[in-house]
Specification:
There is one protein chain. This protein is of the alpha/beta class. Helix content is 44%, strand content 16%. The chain is built from 21 helices and 16 strands. The chain has a 6-stranded mixed beta sheet with strand order 4-5-15-10-11-14, with helices on both faces. Strands 9-6-7-8-16 form a 5-stranded parallel beta sheet, sandwiched between helices. The chain has a 3-stranded antiparallel beta sheet with strand order 2-1-3. Strand 6, helix 7 and strand 7 form a beta-alpha-beta unit. It is globular and about 60 Å long. The two termini are 26 Å apart.
Length: 497
């Protein structure tokens, strides 16, 4: 399968799309078409393991990768997880939680970033690329650690992570700044995630720096969800959740379901949209935001306006005002009109706002709706679910649960099965979850872990409890207007081949 840029300037193979990360014209790579999954193929996937299901989905897009080798890589990646990579938990009548945080870094980003190193290295081999690779990552918290862990000590690869200095949880910061590996670097930016993301995109667009890299035999790539190699593995868990509902006798095959997805950069929910376009029986996608509810307003009005107050919340991975992956959805609702998509992105870049037409808005509304939870509502939701069911969820999941419950409150006769996507282990945000569950306010993260365990009896991941004794390796911080001084970008020196 070939991939094309959302802005019309390029056509590449799957391997090329993954290695490049971003198109030369600044657009994002999207599949030339959506490969269908038939009812018969769904039925055949029912008895398969999670890696086998994922291999079936990914091979539809990445047909230039060897199928058996891809399956082997997926099995190796998910062997690092604690049991089932994506278990489905029944919470209430018609409401289920898809847990995506059983990987090495306790966040849903592991579902893709344990696989991406293979996709990138193999993609380079397929393309005959011999250069070393410099991976740039902007993170709102979880992507950074997952990418660092996935790529640590990879030969011929250097990874640089930029995170907002005061925009991640204490546990997320510790996870990144204590990261082991000889090829990793982490830099704090005195700004928000959007500042980090913009800075990384500027590096990709810098022609002069590209020349410097070429002279040093280095190419750039990305581990953010702008890279299709990040997006593709995420499509798989929507298929798996659906198949688990069928296997568990909760739905009949072919029956539609809804997903409520906590969303910041729009990658997670976009993967669900791609699954729907492939034929997975999804009725609606509920886009859940926190107080940075720019997506909620966009779905309601058709206007995407970044001129608004930015809030630091207890769900920091969603503290984003520029959702990069929304460009991929716009490309589809604009009828795959690259010129129109480029026009909207130009308006966003130059004016900080764009507006879709009534027809384009209607196409979005046919599938998506948006909702959000303020800080008090997150606390209330986490507390209520814990009291009513004994289930402990993190703050991001709390946003998605609030949106799901609001939907059923407004649509009391709706009998649809709703899957709430859970993106992080509660212990990644121990103080905030502890406060929601008990009202106990503590300043120390590890004391928060201890007290949250006492209150919930939920097992504490060793990868988090062990952070207390790990040395901090990275303390560098830079101003947001100069976050990407090229002196920070240490290049890989060890050959990849």
């Amino acid at each position: 399968m070939n991939f094309i840029s959302t802005r019309g300037g390029e056509k590449v193979t799957g391997a090329q799309a993954i290695v490049k990360g971003l198109a030369d014209d600044g657009g994002l790579f999207v599949p030339e078409n959506f490969p269908p999954e038939t009812r018969e193929e769904l039925e055949e996937m029912l008895p398969l393991s999670y890696p086998e299901r994922a291999a079936k989905v990914l091979s539809k897009y990445l047909d230039d990768y060897d199928g058996a080798e891809l399956l082997s890589a997926l099995e190796a990646a998910y062997s690092k997880f604690d049991g089932d990579p994506a278990p489905l938990v029944r919470i209430d009548e018609g409401i289920y939680i898809l847990e995506l945080w059983h990987g090495p870094t306790c966040a849903f980003k592991d579902m893709a970033l344990t696989v991406l190193p293979y996709l990138l290295r193999k993609g380079a081999d397929i393309c005959g690329i011999k250069q070393n690779i410099l991976i740039l990552v902007a993170t709102s918290g979880d992507t950074g650690k997952a990418a660092l862990e996935g790529f640590k000590d990879a030969p011929g690869i250097k990874i640089m992570v930029f995170y907002p200095d005061d925009g991640v949880s204490k546990m997320q910061k510790l996870q990144m700044c204590t990261q082991e590996g000889s090829n990793v670097n982490v830099v704090a930016v005195k700004g928000n995630f959007d500042d980090c993301q913009t800075a990384v995109k500027k590096i990709f667009a810098d022609k002069e720096y590209a020349k410097i890299l070429a002279e040093k035999n280095v190419i750039l790539s990305s581990a953010n969800s702008i890279n299709f190699g990040r997006l593709a593995p995420q499509i798989a868990y929507y298929f798996s959740a659906y198949l688990d509902l069928v296997s568990g006798g909760q739905i009949e095959i072919g029956e539609e379901i809804d997903f409520s997805v906590p969303t910041g950069n729009f990658g997670n929910i976009l993967a669900a949209y791609y699954a729907k376009r492939m034929g997975l029986p999804i009725r609606r996608l509920h886009c859940a935001s926190n107080m940075n509810n720019i997506l909620t307003d966009f779905f309601a009005s058709g206007s995407y306006d970044t001129h608004r107050e930015f809030y630091k919340t207890t769900s920091p991975s969603m503290d984003i005002l520029i959702s990069s992956n929304l460009e991929r959805l716009l490309f589809e609702v604009c009828g795959r009109n690259a010129a129109r998509t480029a026009e909207l992105m130009k308006d966003l870049r130059e004016k900080g706002v764009y507006k879709v037409t009534a027809e384009e808005k209607a196409r979005i509304a046919a599938i998506f709706d948006g909702g959000f939870a303020n800080e008090d509502e997150v606390v209330e939701t986490v507390y209520d679910v814990f009291c009513d069911t004994g289930y402990t969820m993190d703050t991001h999941t709390g946003c998605a649960m609030k949106v799901a419950l609001d939907w059923f409150e407004k649509n009391k006769k709706d009998t649809i099965k709703m899957v709430v996507v859970s993106t992080a282990n509660p212990y990644k945000f121990p103080q905030d979850v502890l406060y929601a569950v008990t009202g106990n306010d503590v300043k120390d993260s590890f004391k928060g872990i201890k007290r949250l365990h006492a209150a919930t009896a939920m097992a504490v991941p060793k990868s988090l409890s062990g952070l207390r004794d790990k040395p901090v390796r990275f303390t560098k911080s830079v101003k947001r207007d100069k976050p990407v001084s090229y002196t920070h970008l240490t290049l890989p020196t060890t050959s990849r081949v």
